[in-house]
Amino acid sequence: MKIFKINTPEFKIDGGAYFGVIPKMIWEKHYPADKNNMCDASCRSLLIDDGKRIFLIDTGIGNKFCDNLKKDYFINNKEDLEKNIYALGYKPEEITDVILTHLHFDHCGGTTKISNTTGNLELTFPNAIHHISSSQWDNALNPNYREKSSYLKENFELLSDSGKLKLTDKNTYISENIELRIFNGHTSGLMLPVIHTESRTLFFAGDLIPAKASIPLAWISAYDVFPLTSIEEKNKLLQEAVINNWVLLFQHDYYNECCTLQKTDRGIRVQETFSFEEFAL
Ligand SMILES: [Zn+2]
Predict the structure, then answer these.
(1) Residue 36 belongs to a domain with what CATH number?
(2) Average pLDDT of the chain, as a whole number
(3) What's the predicted TM-score (pTM) here?
(4) How far is the CA of 177 from the centre of ligand 1 (A)?
(5) In sequence order, which ranges of 99-203 are alpha helices (DSSP H)?
């Protein structure tokens, strides 16, 4: 099994929103902000080739964002999902499975694109089955007022009648090595992959634990719809991860990609951080 990290367009998140109730004088020691209080954020995806199927986990912000979104979130185009897939020697048509952790714009924007030939919206990965949790799908189609602005229908609506949508309502294995776990604190039906390689288990921590600084239980993002559920889910996951020596991959941490964990007197904390390349060795 081969696993590759794919960088997609980066953006900035308001530091207060990123770290919720944690005061700035504490969080800024761990995660710097600019003069507008904005923090740099990565959007990492993974491509997994198990020899039979080619999986893509999340599609980032994409490149069809409107000017307002681009300005509000300081989105830059330095990274490009499709270009980075080609650079690895794969083609978008070869992706067999797209796993969307959820449908907030920074996780599924690259799922559709404007066609160069027709100018119409089309699926970026036309041959892939797109895996989404059923509760997330329902939530995105009928959004609550809190999450409404994070769901941009042009990112996912095309999947409805495509025959390429597979909804999942419980924890499941979608291949021998890839397990999908459902969480409900950040949003209903956040679906995060646990990837079992021959030597290690890698947890794609997504928006459950977006950055290294989010590991302590109280460090919950203000974007989380049910923060107390997030704390419970994070606690359970961290216990399992530390016991089994899992590696965590941070999707949004601009400064850290992967870590292992250890038990300390203050709770579970980072043992060691390292790059994805070091994990993949
Ligand atoms: Zn996110």
Answers:
(1) 3.60.15.10
(2) 95
(3) 0.96
(4) 24
(5) 105-108, 134-141
